[in-house]
Amino acid sequence: MYDLLKTSARRLAAAGLIVGLSALSAAAFDTKARAAYVVDAGTNTVLMSKNAETALPPASMSKLMTLYVAFEALRDGRLTLDERLPVSEHAMSYKGSTMFLNTQDRVRVEDLLRGIIVLSGNDACVVIAEALSPDGTEAGFARYMTKRAQQMGMANSTFANSNGWPAAGHRMSAQDLAILAEHLIEDFPEYYPLFKETTFEFDGRAPSNVRNRNPLLRLGIGADGLKTGHTEEAGFGLTGSALQDGRRVIFVLSGLNSTAQRAEEAEAIVNWSFRHFGKRTIAKAGEPVAQADIWMGAAATVDLVAAEDLEILLPALAGRQINAEVVYDGPVNAPVAKGDLLAELVIQPDELPEIRLPLVAANDVARGGFTVRVTTAAKALMRQILNGPAEAS
């Protein structure tokens, strides 16, 4: 357990000074990527952000959005894994990474999904897109992808096609790709294992294109997804995730110079994320953290407790004491019910964003009787007389 060095502060009043030892900071990772974003999924702590909100060409990493829409269709019953879909001339016309589909094919949805994930099939994306498009076209599907992405909080994503083929206006930010990756992992656990498959041989058509391009899957570092990307404009990128000892990290790298540099940077990012940061429990559920003043209550104060175990991510070399501040609007008007959200525990670790954790009332506090109300009012009036209106408030 970590010791919290804290003071209670009331908004609308002067906050107390934070005292204590600062946590030791973790060295910032100096990535060669044009854009990068790394987040600890369990605590939602951003470990790195470099040009993360800049809309850039995502190349094949945008196929993750096509997959998400396909998974939604499977969940809703609009597609089934065994359903066979036709291949249009438009789908067959795409070059680059393909499944070498032709217009005589009718391909199982499950094979198309594996073809997108493992083989990065541009043609497979279009087959899915045309099946699910509101107007039967890939362009219509791209418009739907853009709308759906905005609904999911991806503010810097617009799609011109289903597969990331270079096109004007086809853009995603690193942060948006991380949001999408987390949705894929959390919303579709039944399909997420597909992303760690290292090979897929479809019908023996392309023996040179059977291996997953994700360079981390065979390294034994917990990597289990998600998608690489490369075009001349975008450079080399990877939206990845790794799980070690129950802790998941999601990361996005974009704009690297080669497959070798992508592999090197991605492995280094994963190792850095797990070695230099660790999850820490700073308060157990029900454990008093501070007290809040009560106005006109049967008790003068109420304990503020954690509703559940409070866990945060800290640099691995952090000291045993953490600077923290309890902030609330006070005094709190009675009555108070057990479990009422009354305050926040605010923590500012070095090199990490501010962390705000909820604190709730430990017990009920009834409204005070007539004597309490009269006594409280008299004390407030006396403070006003002695100290002036500002101090009394």
Shape: elongated
Proportion of residues in helical segments: 25-40%
Structural class by helix and strand composition:
alpha+beta
- Count of β-strands: 16
CATH architecture of the largest domain: 3-Layer(aba) Sandwich
Give the name of the CATH superfamily of the largest domain: DD-peptidase/beta-lactamase superfamily
Number of helices: 9
Q: What is the rounded distance between the termini? A: 37 Å
- Rg is 27 Å
Strand content: 25-35%
CATH topology of the largest domain: Beta-lactamase
Q: Report low-confidence residues grouped into runs of 5 or more.
A: 1-26
Give the integer mean of the pLDDT values.
87
Major sheet details: 7 strands, mixed
Number of domains: 2
What does this structure look like?
With 393 residues, the chain is an alpha+beta fold. The protein is 27% helix and 27% strand. A hairpin with a 2-residue loop joins strand 7 and strand 8 (247-256). The longest helix has 18 residues, at 370-387. The chain is elongated. The two termini are 37 Å apart. Residues 1-26 have low confidence and may be disordered.
